[in-house]
Amino acid sequence: MWRQPKAVWAVAFASVVAFMGIGLVDPILKPIADNLNATPSQVSLLFTSYMAVMGVAMLITGVVSSRIGPKRTLLIGLLVIIAGAGLAGLSDTVSGIVGWRALWGLGNALFIATALATIVNSARGSVAQAIILYEAALGLGIAVGPLVGGVLGSISWRGPFFGVSALMAVAFVVTAFLLPATPRAKRATSLADPLRALRHRGLLGVGITALLYNFGFFTLLAFTPFPLDMTAHEIGLIFFGWGLALAFTSVVVAPRLQHRFGTVRVLVLNLVAFSALLAVMAVVTDAKPALATCVVVAGLFIGVNNTLITETVMKAAPIERGVASAAYSFLRFGGAAVAPWLAGVLGETFGAHVPFWVGAAAVMLGAGVLVLTRGHLRHLDDDEEELADEAAAITVGSDS
């Protein structure tokens, strides 16, 4: 699995840096609120604008990539992130930061969906092995992001934004020189293709499950720094532990559980366990050591879920992987966009316990959706050659 072409490693490195951007701002949410006299719900819009634009923009990633090629799409995405992050660091108002985070989300959309499809199509070995490699990059980026954000944020809340911009410049150079020129797709993707892909009930069910799961995930990520009420460096260390747990289970634990118990069963049980943990966080919100411990433990469940649900998306429907990734990402980032803002409003209005209860309910509902969808996902654990033959047969049948 680890003996891959340089193109795969180039995209994987850039993915690490891209995913650092998700957690890099987490330790500075409260310092931004304190310095700019903003409420938690206002500051949480940094996540909402980022995720909302990213989700909608996922619909155009295939259109762009199929016309100009994956490499150019990746490079444009990186340039947009460099600009968005740098301009956010120069802003003096929360609304300005929120706006530039939206631009950052556009760049991330162009990059992330294209990166996943590029790694899966270019990597040696099975789809499952390629996704583990992608999730390893995700886990490493998410783990290192809060730590770097905490260190830079302890100097200035602007530091993490400039840090992302600088790291993305490095990723741009690496991608430009190490990733060979990639050809355009044989067939140009239309704006409607990702929406048509959701006609496949398996893919739609997984997408809705991911939307509800991400509601809980980003409630934890965006709201927990406020009840923890610690320094940027301390928050960074806590979420660094969370990221390490996520990286470990996504690469080591998830494949073993999948092989032994099956994909859907592991996903359902994992979602139920994560929902229970969010309920515990609702109970112990006022006890900082217990809340911090729950954050780290949550990484174990999130790592398993991220790996298996990404693989499920790639196999759920016999369609192009880039289209499947765009359709799924469009839905899941919808939950990620709403959760941070709503968690802030609920916390301000009803108390810090309530967002975690709502997050727990959303994740449990996601587990229920997956149970109802499982009949359309029976093929997930079949041999990949059999899946390829089935997809080819369906394609031939639709053409005739």
From TrEMBL:
It is found in: Cell membrane. It is a multi-pass membrane protein. Keywords: Membrane, Transmembrane, Transmembrane helix. The chain crosses the membrane at residues 7-25, 45-66, 73-90, 102-120, 132-155, 161-181, 202-223, 235-254, 266-284, 290-310, 322-342, 354-372. GO terms for molecular function: transmembrane transporter activity. One of its GO terms (cellular component) is plasma membrane. It comes from the Bacteria. Residues 7-378 form the Major facilitator superfamily (MFS) profile domain. It holds the Pfam family MFS_1. SUPFAM superfamilies: MFS general substrate transporter. PROSITE patterns: MFS (PS50850). CDD domains: MFS_YfmO_like (cd17474). This is MFS transporter. The lineage of its organism: Bacteria, Bacillati, Actinomycetota, Actinomycetes, Mycobacteriales.
